[in-house]
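User: Run a structure prediction on this.
Assistant: Running it now.
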Amino acid sequence: MIPTIAARVLASVMAAILTERFLVNVLVILAEWAVNRWGNDLAGDLFQQFKDSLDKDHGQPMNLYDEIRRK
């Protein structure tokens, strides 16, 4: 009985955490790392434009991924 309850709680917590916005932010953090590691200045500039357009699409005035990296 306890494993069943624990599995349900874990499933509901994971469903709450793994939202589209969270997954997009994780992918952006990983892509930013890749651009910084292997990219050049042009790739960095293009990626910055991509991040800004994502913020405009979601109506967020700031980059959540930049806020996460500061903490």
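The CA atoms of residues 16 and 54 lie 21 Å apart.
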